[in-house]
Amino acid sequence: MTVPVTIVDAFTDQPFAGNPAAVCLLDGPRPETWMQAVAREMNLSEAAFLRPRQEGWDLRWFTPKVEVDLCGHATLASAHVLWEEGRLPRDADARFHTRSGLLVASRGEDGIRLDFPADPEEGIQPPQDLAEAMGVHPLHVGRCRCGLLLLLESEATVRDLRPDCAWLGAVTGAGVIVTAAAEGEGYDFVSRFFAPALGIDEDPVTGAAHCCLAPFWAARQGKDTLVGRQVSARGGTVRVQLSGDRVLLGGEAVTVMRGMLVGGAAGRPDS
Hints:
By secondary structure, this protein is an alpha+beta fold. Helices cover 21% and strands 41% of the residues. The protein is built from six helices and 18 strands.
């Protein structure tokens, strides 16, 4: 038995930029151990596993190390694959049933839009040794579902940051968003995301982090619609719109590879 797998670069309109995700289309249940093994084999920040169900699709996300509760770029990539492969009409919404509830993706003139739960941060005292692990002293530290959010003094500081990821994972036990106001035109804020505790030293473009960044910057800039640029080496653009307790994330996607999983593809279904 084979399983179709597609590699998609998300939050970009150019191949080999944005954040790559492996999207696996399943025809039945698979054990968690098998999905985790596939994610390790793909060795990308996330692998997404889609299975059809009544009124939508079951969707799960795995890093090479763990299953996660929410992933923006792999959800965007999954919707892109469903439309591109003809699994959904191009004018139909993609409805995903996940560990974070129902998530909906829709197509628009400016790309794909995801409807995600907002994730406001709450200010906290910085964990001990955080500044040493990051190599900078943040202006503000908050906690959200993604982990920690650090406000830095400038875009240049965000771009030049070289944290000690091994130490950072031990200090925080979670992901770390770093952000600053954008200094050029075209973007409202910049960010990066480090998650060594999840097996990802730096994530190229992180949709889930923007569920926190959207309310954070909306409050500071006095507007609900903003454009973020994640300034990792690959880079990517995320359009955000705060709508009550939801965030609309907008971006584009590009397919870069299609293939089949062969070895161990059958697996034994979950009991």
